[in-house]
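Entry 14. Ran structure prediction on the chain below.
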Amino acid sequence: MQDRLNRSASKGLGQLISYKKNERGIDIETSFGNVSIAFFDERIVQVWGYMGRREEDFSYAVVGTPIKIEFSISDLSEKIQLTTSALKVTITKSPVRVQMTDLQDVLINEDDAGLGIQWINDQVSCYKKLQEGERFLGLGEKTGPLDKRGRGYINWNTDAYAYGTDTDPLYCTVPFYIGVHHAKTYGIFFDNSYRSVFNFGASNDRFASFSADSGEMRYYFIAGESVGEIVKSYTYLTGRTPLPPLWSLGYQQCRYSYYPDREVLRVAENFSERDLPADTIVLDIHYMNAYKIFTWDKKNFPDPKGLIDQLKKLGFHVVLMCDPGIKIEPGYETYDSGIKEDIFLKYPDGGLYSGQVWPGWCHFPDFTNPAAREWWATHFKEYVALGAEGFWNDMNEIATWGNTLPDLVEFDLEGRKTTMREGRNLFGLMMARSTYEGTKKLMNKRPFNLTRSGYAGIQRYAAVWTGDNVAYDAHMLAGVRLVNSMGLSGMAFTGYDIGGFVGNTDEKLFARWISIGAFSPFFRGHTMINTRDSEPWSFGEKVEEIARNYMKLRYRLMPYLYSLFFDAAKTGMPINRSLAFYFPFDEKIYDHQFHNQYLFGPSLLVAPVESNNDLLRVYLPEGSWYDLMTDQLRGGNQQFVEDCPIHLLPVYVKGSSIIPMKERAGRNTNDFGDTLEIHIYKGDTYNDFTLYEDDGISFEHEHGVFSKRKIAYTPEKNEIIIQDKEGSFTSPYTTLKVYFHGFHSITEVRIDGVATPVTWKEYRFVESIRNYDPVNTQPEGPKIDLPYVTTTNESKKIVINW
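Output, structure tokens:
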């Protein structure tokens, strides 16, 4: 076989010639090429195949620090084996191939024996043997089913206007996937920003592979006992989502575009007048003068500070669109200063690259140049001085008319120099980084930063939305899968345009979309120019009421949601969690009937459904589950048909769950009220939830000004413990109401040893859900008879038992 490989046009790692141990692993020389094996920790292994001299270990994606670990090396006759406390890495000697097993020698992942790492001219590939029943999850913003086996994908950031439900590539590159087979889970992150291709057994039954047009074969293998462990390890490598401003989790209203300023104010006033909670107005490109970034259209927005001040009085924050194209126009300060500071992308002969986009012919900042990042940051001073607190990085794939960027355009890459071939997939990441770091410094509080494009690690700098989606049902469900896929790829703050950006949404579609969107990390309504209005009140009273109900439910869930974002910042766990996070070996979750279902945090199972369906087949995995609206209890491992009229989205609560909620929605996220509800769902397994609070805007939480309390439910003891508060922040909630779901015979509890009778009340998770029968317009939606107790929200430990 080695002779055949030597004659092949494709060259793979040859026979082992020598190896040398270092403090993190070993360096191997082969008869064709080299490979380095280095431990990041006991479960994370960097595999680096290269020709000739190895490049510097430079990455914009990897920010984690390697942990020094103990490992052993065994030199056997036909292989070398490296062993940590959690993993064995075996390297065969002829030819050199890599295999990963657990400590009991159970296979996790292995190179294809005949292929392994290969080169075809500049292209480099790694071929992994397909395992029986192996499934492939994640890979970031990728269309298609939950299990991507049998499919191939390209990573090449693209302005994919009105993309289809199977279009690839899209806007964002995250070359990280999770493999599942035979009760084993693992992750592979291929850190190469050149155009790459992932093949999960597409058009072959032999291998899964990942390749790049150039660069080196540098990938990280991540072992873990669960999908969650793998995502946590991946985000240890690439960073985690910083705690966002609380207001950015509320409803954001956008369209392309709101103008003049009077229309912007009228939209904001409508939310208050119609009792619709909201936090943000987003200004698209028409606020600019001729689409030029860092300018204002003085005709339609003569007093931007006055407008923003008025919006603040109405309770709204402002997000501004930011495009990277700088119009070529002498006398335009942004252009002139960019020329002076020499920060634009260039051709190899020194000429500036020009591309055509909204303002006309433009130059583009080279955000891989530290000087360009500093230049970009300084230009946000006026926006920040006006009171803007959010920034929307768009068109950063780079999008240009023609959608074809010359390969030879050069990037600085921190002084290392490269071309568009390596830099294109990095542009969105580095623009988002520049905006985030610049505005954070200028504002001295948490900015909201949103991007369309990015690369692995983008979660450190920005929320990501799924771009120019289309107003139809299949696209709505495709957006759900995209967000779930991005969650599997370490991206916690993600979402889609509710109602669809392209095309005209209708009444039922908007009603269904906003109910699903209420259970999404990023919650924004948006539509494009020359389409029908798409605000919550634009479709008549029926749809407005449905929108109000789910918007208010979202706002009441804010203590739960904000605590999940705290968890994301600490552990990397996403908000929207595919069922594969908890049930990766349950075949039913991959059935196309059920692969849209997901968990919103650890407790709420959401079953999305098309707008034209009033019935849905639902699958509930292992455990016990309560219907959110009715408290009907169902066992797990079963499927059934659920009624889902347009005003009811199927949502279920896992048994033993703990869900903190506001008693009332309020006008915005800053309108807390004084009562916090804690909902306990009867189950048979221990559970705990960490309730996190802070001021929602500053960085004082990094200096101890926060409140963190663990709430624990122990069924065998019939006990709930709310632990002592950590941190110095004073909660706005002075009263606690603890609700008991599924505890039908409870009449009395003891609060810190004091007997306390429970009170029963008729409870609704939404204020009203009408029948919509024209003859009967009284609220007839789901209600629950619930027992609860009330106590004071003190900082000390509270014990409730029964």
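The first strand starts at residue 11 and ends at 12. Will compare against last week's run tomorrow.
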